[in-house]
Amino acid sequence: MAAEPWLVVGLGNPGPSYAGNRHNAGFLVLDVLAGRTGGKFKAHKARADVVEGRLGAERVVLAKPRSWMNESGGPVKALRDFYKVPVGRLIVVHDELDIPYGAIRLKRGGGDNGHNGLRSITKSLGDREYLRVRFGVGRPPGRMDPATFVLRDFSTTERRELDLNAERAADAVEALTAGPLEAAQNAFHAT
Fold first, then answer.
1. What are the entry keywords (predicted)?
2. Phi, psi dihedral angles at 141 (to 5 degrees)
3. Domain region containing 162
4. Does 116 carry a binding-site annotation?
């Protein structure tokens, strides 16, 4: 029997008004990965848009929940159950305030660090030991509320590097599917 696919979930909010937001970094990276598989997102009954394909030698299901970010857990659990993916083969790509803009960090498990999308996923799965690709968006300027900051579009300066950063995050996802976490961390944490 073939190994289970990897389930790669990008977090974001649905709709064109959110497309350029920092909070939608996960969707941006999933669009890059979908391009690499040659697939197009299609609606799935789990309240998500999915692409099934291959990244290198690995079978993957790429998913963008159609729920609000704070309610991502329901669609992620439904997809995990539908595709019978063990939690160790789940990768969640999300924006991260505590990492400088452009930095990519990889980890397994841990807390949600105030990220409501991660909190929803952990609660729905009853497990936090999934892999994370953390896309650094930096801290808000001055006294700006972090919730306001992540729902704003990337700045003009940030957009100059955005495509490159999304490609690097997509490379990190591929590194996680191809080998051990430690090797991927060594490759991406040095930059």
1. Cytoplasm, Hydrolase, RNA-binding, tRNA-binding
2. -75, 150
3. 6-189
4. yes
Active site residues: 23
Q: What is the pLDDT of residues 117-141, one digit of tens each?
A: 999 999 999 999 999 999 999 999 9
CA-nearest of 54, 160, 73 to 119 is 73
**Is residue 151 in a domain?**
yes
Is the pTM higher than 0.90? The answer reads: yes
CATH classification of the domain holding 175: 3.40.50.1470
Helices (DSSP H) in the chain: which residue ranges? 25-37, 73-83, 116-125, 146-150, 156-178, 181-189
> Is residue 42 one of the residues assigned to a domain?
yes
pLDDT at 73 over 70: yes
Selection from 10, 2, 6 nearest residue 28 by Cα: 10
- CA pair distance 178, 83, nearest whole angstrom: 19
The CA-based angle 7-12-15, given to 5 degrees, is 120
**20-67 pLDDT tens trace:** 999 999 999 999 999 999 999 999 999 999 999 999 999 999 999 999
Q: Within a domain: residue 1?
A: no
Give the single-character DSSP code of 23: G
70 labeled part of a ligand binding site = yes
Task: Tell whether 141 is covered by a domain.
Answer: yes
Number of domains in the chain: 1
130 labelled ligand-binding: no
pLDDT at 3: 78
